[in-house]
Design goal:
Length: 177
């Protein structure tokens, strides 16, 4: 059996040839990154990049529904800093729906879903985000594979390359503008 030589990549991006044969440079992200949720006034929150999870989740508490201009809204609070229950961000967003989400442990839960913008490095895009209590979890936010997919192709490989051995590769790049 013949093996091809593997060349290590040390840059922060990779060349990816799509089916159109066009070469595209993709940013490399780590297994955890700091992201921003600008529409929710969250400047920075540590997120686990989890391609095994279909949906994305944000730690939220004191979740309540209300109506504004004939739209169903959700008001909630967030502890965006890990191991800091004193710093609180209050947020509001339009409620998209309630969705049944099954955790990796097999526990099903009905969660509110909102649409918001996520910023990772210099990229921003809309994502659906479920709200749940993640107090006992290692990360306040989970960025699932649906949020990581490119809009046109629907493929994760067309938006990012994930290096599972690295962390915070794109974090804070939006501050360098």
């Amino acid at each position: 059996m013949a093996f091809s030589k593997i060349t290590p990549v040390s840059s922060s991006s990779l060349k990816h040839s799509a089916s159109t044969k066009a070469s595209v440079t993709l940013p490399i992200i780590g297994w955890r990154e700091r992201v921003a949720l600008p529409q929710l006034n969250i400047e920075q929150i540590k997120a686990k990049i989890d391609t095994g999870a279909r949906s994305s989740a944000l730690h939220a508490f004191k979740i309540e529904e209300f109506e504004l201009n004939n739209k169903l809204m959700i008001r909630f609070q967030v502890h965006p800093r890990q191991r800091d229950n004193k710093y609180i961000v209050m947020a509001e967003a339009e409620l998209l729906e309630y969705r049944k989400v099954t955790s990796s442990g097999g526990h099903a839960q009905i969660r509110p879903v909102i649409l918001t913008t996520v910023q990772l490095g210099i990229k921003q895009w809309p994502i659906e985000l479920t709200l749940t209590n993640r107090d006992v979890m290692g990360f306040r936010m989970l960025l699932g594979r649906q949020a990581l997919r490119a809009p046109r192709s629907g493929s994760l490989r067309d938006r990012f390359v994930i290096d599972p051995g690295k962390s915070f590769l794109q974090s804070n790049k939006h501050l360098q503008k």
